[in-house]
Structures are given as C-alpha cells and as structure tokens.
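During the reporting period the student researcher (J.K.) took over the structure-prediction task from the postdoctoral fellow and processed the backlog of single-chain submissions. One of the processed entries is reproduced below for the supervisory committee.
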Amino acid sequence: MELSSIKILIVDDDEADRQDLANVLQRRIPGLIVEPAEGYEEAILKITASKYDCVLIDFRLQGKDGLELLREIRTHKGYEFCALIVITGQGSEEVAVEAMKGSAHDYLLKDQILEPRLIQSIETACTKAKLAEHQHLQLETRKNFAALAAHELNTPLTTLSGFLQMIELKLEGAPPDIQSYIELAIKNVNYMNTLVGSLLSYAQTGESNETIRLVALDHALGSALDLVRREILETQAQVSYSVLPMVYGRQNELIQLFRNLIGNAIRYRSAEPLKIEIHSVIERDVWHISVSDNGIGIPSKMRTQVFEPLQRAHTTGTSGHGLGLAISAKIVQSLGGRIWCEEAAEGHGCKFVFTLPVVEEKPVIKYNTPFSSIIR
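J.K. obtained the following structure tokens:
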C-alpha cells in the first residue's frame, strides 16, 4: 500500500513522544500527512471534523485511557474500518487483549518500536482496514441487489396471483379441467412467491444488522416451537429436549435455525408417530447441538448436498424448495460453527448436528417447557 497518500492522527498527551513519532514517520515517508492530538477530547474533535486513514493511540491518556478512545472512534461515521493502533510505554497481556477486543489492528510498546516495525504495522493495519471496508461495500451491494431483485419479482407475482384468483371466481361452474388449470397456476405462483422470499433470506443470512450477543438456546428453541405449533399439533409429533446452553449468536437467526431443522423433521416424517429430540453435549471448547427424528431419513450420498441451495433429498411426495438447510448452514457458519447430517442412532431417521463455540462462562439456564400438554 502507498503510505505517502494517507493521513495519520497521533493521539498522545506527551508532546515529546508525539513529535518523535511524527518525525520518524515523516522522515521515512516523504509527503505523509501527520497531525497531533493532545488527548481524548482533541482527538474526538479532529476525527469529527476530518477523515484519517490511521490513528495511533497512546494507551495512557489523562482522564480517559486509550481503549475508551478506541471504542469511541469506532462509533463515528466513516471510522468503522479505520486503521487503529494502540501504543503504550507500559504494556501487559491484559491491555493487549483489550486492545484487540476493541478492534485495534495492532499493539506496540514504545520502547520496542523500531522504524521498520512501526512502518510495517501502519502499512498492515491500513491494508486490512481497506480490505474490510471493500468487503463491507461488496456485502452491502449484494444485500441491496437481493432486496431489489426480490421486490421486482414479487410485485408481478402478487399481481398475477390476484388476477388468477379473480379469474377463478369468474369461472365458477366451468368444466373441471379448466378449474384445475387455474388452481395449478395459483399454486405455482404461490410457490414462486415463497421461493423468492427464501432466496432473499438465504442471500441475507449471516449478514443481518442484528447484534451478536449472548443467547439462551432454550429460549430460541421455545420461540421456534411456538412458530411450528400448528404443524406439531396436526402431526401429533412428540418433541423432547434437554437443557441447552448459552451461546453467542443472533437471536432471530438461531430461532430460524431451530425452526428449519424441526420443520425438516416434520416435512420428511414416516408413517410412524413422529418423535423429535433436541440435545446438547460439550466437547472441549465446542457445543454439539443435535436435532434427531425417526422420519424417512436422508440417503448417505445426499447428506452433504442437502446443505447446498436448491438441493432436496426427496423431491416427490413432500413440499419444500431446498433452501431451509442451506440457510441453516449459513447461520451456523456465520457464527464459527459447523453443521452436518448423520443417520439417527436407531438406524432410521436422521440426526442434524451443529456446533457453536463455548462461552467462557457457562451458566445453566432453567427453562419452562412450552406446550406441556403436547410436547413430552
């Protein structure tokens, strides 16, 4: 990356240290723009009034420390991806960890900074920041395109569906074959509407603006069961589950994950009374969450393919568009986990397993079982 074209802000309440850093940078990179800020307040004023490509922040500032400034800068428009480097005279592992958590690109000790190391740190940080910003813009472009495409497709489909329903009313008493053609057309339009919505959901999965936070999987499962209550009642399914852990994730997407997996079990049930079991087990630093059923199962050759968009293990006798498991896979992968399918323990049905990282503190959440009259 060409550093001579960038603009750097040095935040340090020690004038001598500020000047030393500025001298080093301007000597090594002719034409570089370097500006000073004496402390927290001046730094905020400057980043509000101007745009910097990189900010060097002293950890020990009067009043508020550099980590507070680091977090504050990230909240300012245009600084979501700015290169931020924390510099300190008295380093510790704890400060380094906090700096990285605050999304600093690097952490340097003043008494160990050599010119090549400082230049390399700035160059690497600026390159990473530009790459992250570019990826974000690409992501926003894809999301906007997907939303626009869904809107443009849904509008004529909705109009078509309305006209078909009007024709159906006008054709009361028409020959049965004519009525069946109209019913088939309406059915296919409704299918296309659902497919377009699912494609949009797939495109946006893992890219939600919803904050990743601690989520009780018990609560996410309970919400998912609320959403499929009617299907559970209609199929008289028996759903059982053990206490589930707390994980980091997006609440709505985790609800959708459980809804997709439970819905899959309902859709591909066998003639036997449907049983669905949800359990969790910890293995080292990873939670393994399983959703098992006694349905018709998935052929071994299809157990990887079913997580690809528009792929279905069974295409006759069941509804679906082949996106539920693809969406589930994207949700899990966006949270740093894996998902796979295997044969259920009894030798029939299938078992979906997904992993999520263990939270450092693992509180056990007690949960009031929903639908106690129908779910056992």
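The committee noted the following: Residues 362-376 have pLDDT under 50 and may be disordered.
J.K. will present the remaining backlog at the next meeting.
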